[in-house]
Amino acid sequence: MNENKKVLVAEDSSVIINLTKNVLMFEKYHITAVKNGQQVLDKLAKEDFDLILMDINMPIMDGIACTKAVRLLEDEKKSKVPIIAITGNYKNYTLDDFKKAGLNDYVQKPLDYDHLLATVKKHLS
Any idea where the Response regulatory domain is (predicted)? Predict the structure, then answer.
């Protein structure tokens, strides 16, 4: 069941956070949202997540820098958490760039919520 699956949404747009929360909560995922990469690292220091949805362009610490920092964490469970990039400027990055940064997958904006949900399910199954 999805009920125990915890998803961390890192996104600086409140609109996207709310829409994403609604879609994922409908599927019974437990959602926590933060607005930048530093807040992702702060949350990971306190709790475990099953998946992170990571916006690439965020203030304070962007999604690429944050993903690299997550991959360097000493706690193996936390450092290996699946991370899905959410990006509006995917053309500036190749899938290879995302993989090198440690991202497992990506979903482009504007978000197709059926595709987002399918991608989340793929990495949580």
Answer: 6-124
